[in-house]
Amino acid sequence: MSGFSDNIMRLSGRMLSQYPAQRDWDGKLTRAPHPGIIPTCSIVTLSDNLPKQEIMKWNGWGYSDSKFLYNKKGQAEFTGKRYRLSGMIIPGLREWMESTFGANLQHKTPAAPILNSSAVQPPTLNEAFLKELKSTGIPFSHDAEDRVFRSHGHCLHEIFALREGKIGRVPDLVVWPNCHNDVVKIVELACKHNVCLMPYGGGTSVSSALECPPEETRSIVSLDTSQMNRILWIDEKNLTAHVEAGIVGQDLERLLNESGYCTGHEPDSMEFSSLGGWVATRASGMKKNIYGNIEDLVVHIKMVTPQGVIEKSCQGPRMSTGPDVHHFIMGSEGTLGVVTEVTMKIRPMPEYQKYGSVVFPNFEMGVACLREVARQRCAPASIRLMDNEQFKFGHALKPQVSSIFTSFLDGLKKFYITKFKGFDPNRLCVATLLFEGDREKVLQHEKQVYDIAAKFGGLAAGEDNGQRGYMLTFVIAYLRDLGMDYYVIGESFETSVPWDRVLDICRNVKARIVRECKDKGVQFPPLSTCRVTQTYDAGACVYFYFAFNYRGLSDPVHVYEQVEHAAREEILANGGSLSHHHGVGKLRKEWMRETISSVGMGMLKSVKDYVDPNNIFGNRNLL
Amino acid sequence: MSGFSDNIMRLSGRMLSQYPAQRDWDGKLTRAPHPGIIPTCSIVTLSDNLPKQEIMKWNGWGYSDSKFLYNKKGQAEFTGKRYRLSGMIIPGLREWMESTFGANLQHKTPAAPILNSSAVQPPTLNEAFLKELKSTGIPFSHDAEDRVFRSHGHCLHEIFALREGKIGRVPDLVVWPNCHNDVVKIVELACKHNVCLMPYGGGTSVSSALECPPEETRSIVSLDTSQMNRILWIDEKNLTAHVEAGIVGQDLERLLNESGYCTGHEPDSMEFSSLGGWVATRASGMKKNIYGNIEDLVVHIKMVTPQGVIEKSCQGPRMSTGPDVHHFIMGSEGTLGVVTEVTMKIRPMPEYQKYGSVVFPNFEMGVACLREVARQRCAPASIRLMDNEQFKFGHALKPQVSSIFTSFLDGLKKFYITKFKGFDPNRLCVATLLFEGDREKVLQHEKQVYDIAAKFGGLAAGEDNGQRGYMLTFVIAYLRDLGMDYYVIGESFETSVPWDRVLDICRNVKARIVRECKDKGVQFPPLSTCRVTQTYDAGACVYFYFAFNYRGLSDPVHVYEQVEHAAREEILANGGSLSHHHGVGKLRKEWMRETISSVGMGMLKSVKDYVDPNNIFGNRNLL
After folding, report:
1. Could you give the CA distance from residue A34 to residue A25 in angstroms, rounded to a whole number?
2. Residue A168 belongs to what domain range?
3. Cβ of B35 under 8 Å from any chain A Cβ?
4. Is A543 one of the catalytic residues?
5. Are residues A178 and A276 in the same domain?
6. CB within 8 Å: B500 and A317
7. What is the DSSP string of B43-58?
């Protein structure tokens, strides 16, 4: 049981509306907020006012109440009430898992159910820092649960270790600044007393960015931004919103929606990831074709660094004032400071939204179609092409909607026999589509895209399949926890690559994964699958899933890491980038020099050495 | 007469096709060029194989053979054969100039006709550098004409001084590298022997970027990129082109057009400005609504610095690999190195192009219309709104197309009486439009935009007026030289600003200019005019023209500088940026700290100190 104490506000991401609705922008704004501005108080919640760790898993993905499990009948179900899939039986999942991985419900690898606090090192507290911190009134904790919760992201090795109850280096202290000025105070104190600060947003990193460097001897303070989560104002004249960086995606969109707006930024992690995290990692969203990626969305950024606050003086839409310092901040992955406030572009909510799907005879035709859609610059809000394995996987996740049980294979057969005669079930693949905007334009646009698809042998496969594909996006991450209950481990990773290398990279990386697994003694062929998940003028984003049954291996995580490493080498050799949007963290540091050249590394280092000479922001990411 | 010598290739921007068509990308490319790639040899020319300074003015804008003058009949004409306006009489121009500025054809201020070579300081040559340079075979010159030609951009004070025959600090040597490897050699030698290198592309800077710092005691070497101007390959699969950075806009587009492609990057300076210059200054193009600004167009950049070559390893369309080092390069304004090669996105040439124009009752309605077009994200390739003064100015530039002489005022009266009853001729303003793309889509798009315009009182005013507006873009710069023949000096400057400040900034800056001129003793009210020249989601680019009659002032350039300074202060106070696309150079350095904050300055400085610790790239821009 976590130790509450009266003077610690046990906050989870909910902001009580006790603060004045309108606030000056750091006191520096000399003109009154524009009459077109709607000041808001964000009443946001990830929960019903419960601490994060009481509603989220401490050793897995997402909400505690939502998980895949096999019930007493041996059927897969998804618990809870938060998702469309919640409370439903998924009849095909077991068969799919068994056939894909050679998994067996008898072979269990359960996680440690609760955190053993005594496995957590006592905190290394910097007393001088703590003393001054107390006088600021900023909430803090050195409670084991709070520290462990903020000690990790969601890389496989991190979750695997937690499930085994293995706790490595964790933050010594957690602090919850309430606003920009609190962050300024914390950073000043950290510099004064030489503590290591690690900004913590949504905790969804998959680049080992949040791992505490084991060699760090100073006190590590996790700076949790969740309480700085207000929309400070909405500016309807300029279609911008000024937002505190601790806000999470779902709250940002929900609050803007109340005023008829949205940012449209919808990374797969949006239920939990924060605005500050997006800026720090150069995040990308599902609907970037309409709304842009984070670099297209931000108009103004404020970051607190050891040298002081960095911010531009102007909110102009585009400038030539030397190298763009926003681009020194974006992608800095917590190594330079804490992003506190961001002005983002907003758009009126779309009038109309329509999903869709297209079945292609094979992956090559699908890719050619996506390339043509990109060439004609007529991509929908989202267009994603999954390979054959993912198509099958998607079927496996169909919930039971009637009393008639349809086996996975039967359902699959039925799908292709009735609708897609002549399509080889082991080659066909599916693209999911999302259109949004003005209804008339959407329908025109839809026709244009389906016409192009037809030229590549694509057949429309209905809105349902499209919508389901997107809904699954948010539950996929929960599946890994299920796998990990039955000897199956896996990860996703991604890249961006020029168009002419897409097919090669998909084929070669998937084949390399299979080869490496075999070499390393994996007993059952792995799941090695991909999808083209974003299109650009000059290339695409490709997303890989890789998972395998580790039964019989003495060091499964090590095998996993070797295979992932080889996969990344294969990606790079095939002209793919180090990352499209996940970032570098500590996981991919070794390739940085090759990626941006020695001079590029030197530039990043020189900025780091200037901004943070004592490595206060010592998460050791990137460099 | 300039001194030729046999071993100097007197090159002007023309590349003789004696080099192999296909070249390895720096020898590092391990895969063969893709079969879809069309290798090209660029046969480009700014001239008929004559040296730049023999076809371009040494003390004014553009081509020597093209200029405005008043003929024996006192009529304005535009000489030469290069432009649509060439060889034509412009009947209204004289009247407009006389009434707008109180100018008088009797009051002449002619320029020094030729360069007085003895006014040029003898070169400070670094003999050790020169000796090693000679052994490389790279062409060079220390001829006075070559040096003076590359000693300036096109700020008013620079041209004014040249017209008076006043020559300040100029480069001591000019070198013409032929390719990336030549640049590597030059930079190595410069570092070894401590000479100051100033990259020189098209020479169109209007930020004093090309001025040689008078305090520079080392030998200054102008690195003229004009001979590195090939398109190395066109990649039709990825729709990219790999281009040497010395290519100028008109040649790049013409060459790509031959293969059915374009970049669509059309800055007003495109006849002369270079790809490397665009990268260095964060250039913007007229049709950025379709093609993007330079940061949207580049996929890969290679730059030679004192620390070595900086380049990414990958041509992926978008990445998260830390802060984007391309953005350390873009906007560095020649302070870090020489951009040598760039991969740019290309597009198929548009099928169809259509101009248009709309007359609005007043500027406010016009701005509101542009704002709504931006809000609906349906801007044409280009949409520009000029104020009433520019509308009148546009009329003054109408060539005589028939034998019937129509006075300026008559023509104006006729225009508004016949077409735009009820419009106040002293308030109405005009937007020019350019649509391009698929013909059907263009016509649909056009309808949408005119429908919006109608809601703001806008009336379609025909294709001709639109087309003429854009044609005039390329001759406007020649007008300043005419003005300067008759006591009139002036400049353009620009900013970017949020939508809600557009009207204020236009009104306040124009008024401030008028006030300042009066205060400083300018005898005749100035021309103070603006246009909204680009639209964005969150704001617009506003372009100002400012000119006045300086007769009676003892130090006209000083008065000009004071007024310009005040105008920029007014822009900043009204929420405008330091620059949308012209850049900072030396002209706007004083506001950099305020613009990007001290921490931002420190970041730029730290990069500079790392990349170029001995200030080899010593143009003193930005910092």
Report:
1. 12
2. 117-226
3. no
4. yes
5. no
6. no
7. ---SSSS--HHHHB-S
